[in-house]
């Protein structure tokens, strides 16, 4: 066998391996796609729409794998995975979480956190200390204000009692409404949510589960109640100090 034949054979072999890898990747993505549809109950109105969603899914899976490769190398600090939004573009996802309500104002602002004389730690992770509940999903509802409010309150309950309880964003969506200058799934403000809880208290997620739509207020009692809240200046140094000392 001549040198040319050997080189040509090796090139053909490498090309065949590359083709096999591409085929394997394509099969893997198709299998992931089928599993994705099963996991999240995905159905589409037409074959054309499904092809579009599959194309978007492929692109997102590629981005996830590239990102996780950087994570494995220690270049980035977090990993990514496929979620129910993996068949959506970034623009569609951002539009999904937008709220339409305008002109919302705080009924009353809280006392401002005073960071004077407080030194911030180099780092602190309240997840490691057990003060943060599991990741929640607001679904197709502009209720970020309610989730932000319950997240802050959950941490304070842990710091006071040493117990971690998941509070109910739906309680706020349904009950802390127009009287408190909030608009349910169309938006609201944390300060107004806190005002509601100071007066009425709040239920746990278990007793008042999340639905992701505006419903009639069903709160009959409360598991927790708060006396006051503090507002923090939108300054990174003040936020860092508050994370270390606010309790």
UniProtKB/TrEMBL annotation:
Highest taxon in the source lineage: Eukaryota
GO terms assigned for molecular function: cysteine-type peptidase activity
SMART domains referenced in this protein's UniProt entry, alphabetically: Inhibitor_I29, Pept_C1
Ranges where the Peptidase C1A papain C-terminal domain occurs: 120-247
Ranges in coiled-coil conformation: none
Keywords: Disulfide bond, Hydrolase, Protease, Signal, Thiol protease, Zymogen
PROSITE patterns linked to this entry: THIOL_PROTEASE_CYS (PS00139)
Signal peptide feature range: 1-26
Domain Cathepsin propeptide inhibitor: 33-93
Gene3D superfamilies on file: 1.10.287.2250, Cysteine proteinases
Biological processes, Gene Ontology terms: proteolysis
Pfam families attached to this UniProt entry: Inhibitor_I29, Peptidase_C1
UniProt entry tagged with the keyword Hydrolase: yes
Family: Belongs to the peptidase C1 family.
Protein name as it appears in the record: Cathepsin propeptide inhibitor domain-containing protein
Organism: Callosobruchus maculatus
């Amino acid at each position: 066998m001549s040198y040319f034949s050997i080189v040509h054979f090796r090139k053909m072999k490498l090309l065949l391996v590359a083709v096999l890898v591409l085929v394997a990747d394509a099969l893997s993505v198709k299998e992931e796609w089928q599993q994705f549809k099963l996991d999240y109950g995905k159905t589409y109105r037409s074959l054309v729409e499904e092809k579009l969603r599959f194309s978007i899914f492929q692109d997102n899976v590629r981005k996830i794998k590239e990102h996780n490769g950087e994570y494995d190398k220690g270049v980035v600090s977090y990993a990514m995975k496929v979620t129910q939004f993996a068949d959506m573009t970034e623009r569609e996802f951002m539009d999904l979480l937008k709220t339409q309500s305008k002109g919302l104002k705080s009924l009353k602002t809280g006392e401002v956190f005073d960071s004077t004389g407080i030194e911030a730690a180099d780092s602190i992770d309240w997840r490691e200390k057990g003060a943060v509940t599991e990741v929640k999903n607001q679904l197709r509802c502009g209720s970020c204000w309610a989730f932000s409010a319950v997240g802050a309150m959950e941490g304070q309950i842990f710091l006071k009692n040493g117990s971690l309880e998941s509070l109910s964003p739906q309680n706020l969506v349904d009950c802390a409404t127009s009287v408190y200058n909030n608009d349910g799934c169309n938006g609201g403000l944390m300060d107004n949510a806190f005002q509601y809880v100071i007066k009425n208290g709040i239920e746990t997620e278990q007793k008042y589960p999340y639905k992701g739509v505006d419903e009639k207020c069903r709160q009959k009692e409360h598991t927790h109640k708060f006396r006051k809240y503090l507002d923090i200046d939108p300054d990174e140094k003040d936020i860092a100090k508050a994370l270390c000392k606010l309790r």
